[in-house]
Amino acid sequence: MRIHMVGVSGTGxxxxxxxxxxxxxxxxxxxxxxxxxxxxxxxxxxxxxxxGYDAANLDPRPDLVVVGNAIRRTNVEAQAVEALALExxxxxxxxxAALRERFLAKRRPLVVAGTHGKTTTSAMCAWLLSRAGYxxxxxxxxxxxxxxxxxxxxxxxxxxxxxxxxxxxxxxEYDAVYWNKQPKFLDYAGVGPDxxxxxxxxxxxxxxxYPDVGSYEAAFAAFVSRVPExxxxxxxxxxxxxxxxxxxxxxxxxxxxxxERDPTGDVNPGWVAAPAVPIGPFASAAQAFDLFAGxxxxxxxxxxxxxxxxxxxxxxxxxxxxxxxxASVNDLRGHLKGFEGVRRRQDLLGEPRGVRVxxxxxxxxxxxxxxxxxxxxxxxxGALWVAFEPRSATACRALHQDAYARAFDAADHVLLxxxxxxxxxxxxxxxxxxxxxxxxxxxKVMPSVAAIVERIVVGAAPGDTVALFSNGAxxxxxxxxxxxxxx
Length: 487
Fold this sequence. Notes:
Rossmann fold; Protein-Tyrosine Phosphatase, Chain A; UDP-N-acetylmuramoyl-L-alanine:D-glutamate ligase; 6-stranded mixed β-sheet; 10-stranded mixed β-sheet; about 35% helix; alpha/beta
């Protein structure tokens, strides 16, 4: 087919473009910019990348147009799509509907949902199933290290004794497209009779489409209820909202997981991990843990990605692969240590002048806190610097004002960039000056990206660690800081 994608440079749309190209489709796509890591990946795949939105991008006429969820109804190219669709000369669809119809329908989906950890957990599942010989497909809203792309079709064949090949999907709760405001993950659930789902966490996010906690939780309740009775739901028993929603709404069998000493309410987790310090033969690992299934020891596991939050991600992935697809836990242990992580998740960009510079997608206060604690545990020596850009619809607002005041406890220096969105009422937006006062002398509100770079270059010493937190391009700070530190 000839397929055109409006808003192709988003992580999910980029992954879908990769699937279309693997299928043999001719793909073009438009966007305002083609920044790393998705932009270069698209060009490598042979996607015709068109900068800017224009009705002329629809010539020659495609067979199908996929419109991304970042596109508004007023977009000039989207309006041209609507007009042509009304004339019946082309078909339009959303990213999630296209994925369901073209790639999930004949596979066995493993959908990973949750406020936190879904990208890394999805990548872990794809990695483990791939290395275990299950020939999975996958669709991940990020760029996994070690896998050839952020998306792959996988096998179409029916494996004797295993049925349909698995297809791992990162299940995003954001809305599908402007004409269908339901969460994308509802298109991924209930595809087959025995879907597998993971729920990592439920914590109010995406305030632009979920104005209150109730609306956000309702989306997850609908997702969980769509997993069929013959399927499986794997849930973090430590998260009180996730625990309550799954217990109330799941029709499928539920498998619970947790870390040792987690409060889990009235739930008794079947999979429990005890984080450990990597020593002896495991000293080269970033994180180690002992795993227990049904109270029986499965041995010590090691990972190259640090942090207790990644232990949670790993236990979820192992439980889903073992109980959902019959993978050997012992085999999974051997494969896990080869998992390298995902770009923009504790992604070490370089060490100019002995200063470690990490890029991370963290913007929700829980993710900021967990990531900083993981980096502190991995690099206990030297100062820990963090430059934080509040850019997402939720991060720019006052919703988590108090939570942010606790999220930077592990850092020694906190540099707060200007809000990434304008036009918010004063009472609605995150108060950076107040946040800096509450964080104390270690925090400072910075006027620009250039000022942040200058402050780090002057103040950071060999052995220090710098974490750059943003869910966007952060004004090109990554390359600028690496270059200035090198000088």
